[in-house]
Amino acid sequence: MFGKRKKQIVGCDIGSSAIKVVELKPLKNGEFQLANAAIAELSSEAIVDGAIMDSSLVVESLSRLIADNGIKNPNFGTSLSGHSVILKKIPLPSMSEAELAESIQWEAEQYIPFDINEVNLDYVVLEEGQGETMDVLLVAVKKEKIADYTSVLIQAGKQPALVDVDVFALQNAYELNYELGPEAIALVNIGASVMNINVLHEGQSVFWRDVSFGGNQFTEAIQRELNLPREEAERLKRGERVGERSIQQVLGVVNSVSEDLAAELQKTIDFFVATSSVDSLDRLVLAGGGSQLLGLDEILKERFQVPVEVMNPFRNIRYDESEFDPEWINRHAPSMAIAVGLAMRTVGE
Prior knowledge:
Layout: E1 10-14, E2 18-26, E3 32-41, E4 47-48, E5 51-52, H1 55-68, E6 75-80, E7 85-93, H2 97-109, E8 119-128, E9 133-142, H3 143-155, E10 159-165, H4 166-177, E11 184-190, E12 195-201, E13 204-211, H5 215-226, H6 230-237, H7 251-274, E14 283-287, H8 296-304, E15 308-310, E16 317-318, H9 326-332, H10 337-343
Parallel strand pairs: 1-6, 3-16, 6-10, 11-14, 14-15
Antiparallel strand pairs: 1-2, 2-3, 4-5, 7-9, 8-9, 11-12, 12-13
Helix pairs in contact: 1-3, 4-10, 5-6, 5-7, 7-8
């Protein structure tokens, strides 16, 4: 008998500044067609540093997004990052799958700074070592954080079918749209409050880090410099005019914060190079709303001396131009990378 087609998940990236939703329809040749893509901005008080402060506001925004776009699929997936998420590559003695399943909780306790009973654990064997050891990727997320985010989906009338981690959803989106080669590539998703970093080498993910730095730092610097309300500073940051003011007038402020961001990224990459067998980066690929800040790519190019590009997670996804405005797609594409990475997944995967 023919196997049942697996049910696709709606990717729902609940970020500090906006909710992004993507729904994909799988095609026979392994490609995808875009069925839905939408974004709803959130007020800065709704989610602070990844913690949901006003769940009713988030639920209301998501419910409206679902209704306005006629999303019928009940299965939603979301992803998390930040302090409540621990990713560790740990060396363990070689053992069978059954032995690993039995001992992973005890092994994990040595590496996780939280009470083991307060987290959900998952793991995957990365590679069998030479004979006596193997590398295991350990993922631990605070149950409380998972409950906060899945509760939003449930209250919006949807079924939480999957909870992923931002850096891996980002990697999925990249792999769908770009060729993987032997080089070392840093995928950098710049959100409002967190920068997610995933380094790929020879097509494999080899390093992950979340850094508390993002678009909010730019907004706050513009607010301080021009004594503006947050909403106006946000619009200026995005390149819109506010009265007589334009982005050109705050370019010095934006560039200064971009240099700070570059310095934070440099620290992380230097640590990666110092602790791995990879000598240097070959390329930087940016995503997230912060990736489109004026001049940021040039500052990073100058600092790292490597090519820098902004990811287009819709590059290999087909869409009907009568349904989706290409200009809207191009403008919002970098912000939708994590939602696209989630939307590629299926129920029970």
